Amino acid sequence: MRWFWPSGLTGRVALVLILALITVQLLSLPFYLRQQTSEATELYQHSTLQRINHIVKLFEQLNATQRRDLLPALNSPSLSMDAYYQLTQAESKATDEPSLAATLSTQLDRNVIVKHAKQDGSMLLDMFPSQQRIAIWVPLKDNSWLRFSTSSSLPSSGWIMHISAQIIMLCIAVIILAIVAARQLTRPIRTFAAAAERLGTDVNAEPIEEKGSTELRKATRAFNTMQQRLQSYVEDRTKMLAAISHDLRTSLTRLRLRTEFIEDEQQQRKAEHDLEDMEAMLASTLTFARDDAGQEKLVNLDLAKLIHTLCDDMEDLEKDVIYQGPEALTCLGRPTALKRAISNVIINAVNYGKKAKVTLSQDEENINIQVEDDGPGIPAEQIEKVFEPFVRLDQARNRSTGGTGLGLSITRSVIRSHGGDVTLKNHHKSGLVVTLALPKVS
Question: The Histidine kinase domain covers which part of the protein (predicted)?
Fold first, then answer.
């Protein structure tokens, strides 16, 4: 039965509501049919009895010739009649419908005989008992008889079609109502899911509008409060690091001035080199903590053109970089942040290997940017560690290439802010393969 059970919450709620409402309808259907049948039968019998009563009173005042002339005009599909002067032995036997005979006898003030009329098609009669024809024998004052032929209730075929149409229309209305109700009930969950996904890629996203039921407004308020606290945390962290950076830059400036008074030129160059490293680390740290990717707006950009430009720039610097992929590929992203993230990976590839191969492709879910180098690679147990800030693997990377160990940390932060991720693996021959996966936005 797993195929019958929808995977989405909207489908499940709709199915439960539909089954519940239809079950209630089916349980109440016998009572409804019984009531409708009783009311319809009572109405039909009442009108038929009134008509018979009027015809009998009219025929009491007519002679035989007038009766024969009037019979064709009074016959109808629901009530036909004939005039007899004597009854056969079979027709004069006891009545088949005592209750109906008693009612007619009381209304007409005479003894009435009611018998089942002979008809063909017994299967149809078994299926629709109300199609059973009955004969009503009414005596007149001149000892003649009128025979009326009618059904015991309403004609079943039309009545059943009418009831069936009502039930079908009711079921359609129930299904539509259940689907609409299910969508309304699950809309808050879809809203929260979209807001949570948006928060994962943009901490400065607009808060959710507080509306709906009391519980929904309370949950929305809690979500907005959480988002506001995250924004405040990021902002406070950035301000703190900016203040620290300012104070450290002041100290570094003083140290740089003091290095001019070092008489040993070799020691002076070493000190200046250390100060330059410290200043570069400080700038990288501030950039990483500021997380500009979260401040930049999402726009439609040509990712293929951006990567092609980065590869051309590296070729202008006489670096061996090859691009493979489409000439145009549009995605939703933050241009400056993506440029920094992809550039970090390409620079690492050309710094730690002789060449880099950049491949852009897409599958059903992601847009993939793959950067391969022919360097020494990274030990498998150290692959996850290189994403930590300031981590450099001396055995795998040459210290003389420079850098602060923040490149891959920044790259992962940027790609994850777009809803994607970064993975590393060693090539089966040599070198490292870095894959940046960005989700496709339909």
Answer: 243-442
Residue 109 phi/psi, 5-degree rounding, is 60, 45
What integer is the mean pLDDT of 322-332? 90
Structure tokens at 63: 């002679």
* Distance (Å, whole) CA 410 – CA 345: 10
Which residue matches tokens 């064709």?
A: 72
pLDDT above 70: percentage of residues in the chain: 77
Contact between 350 and 372 (Cβ < 8 Å):
no
* Same domain assignment for residues 13 and 27: yes
Max mean pLDDT among 34-43, 167-176, 197-206, 327-336 falls in 327-336
CA 342 – CA 414 distance, rounded (Å): 10
285 against 165, higher pLDDT: 165
Domain boundary among the residues 271, 290, 309 is at 290
Helices (H), 60-81: 64-74
Mean pLDDT, residues 417-435? 86
Residues 308 and 255 in one domain: no
CB 284 within 8 A of CB 406: yes
Per the structure, the count of domains in the chain is 3
Residues 6 or more apart whose Cβ sits within 8 Å of residue 171: 22, 25
Q: Which residue has the higher pLDDT, 4 or 388?
A: 388
pTM score of the predicted model: 0.49
The answer to whether 220 touches 210, Cβ cutoff 8 Å, is yes
Token couple for 285? 């740290």
Residue 271 has a pLDDT of 84
Asked if pLDDT for residue 409 goes beyond 90, the answer is: no
Those residues whose C-beta lies under 8 Å from the C-beta of residue 248, and which sit 6 or more positions away, are: 278, 282
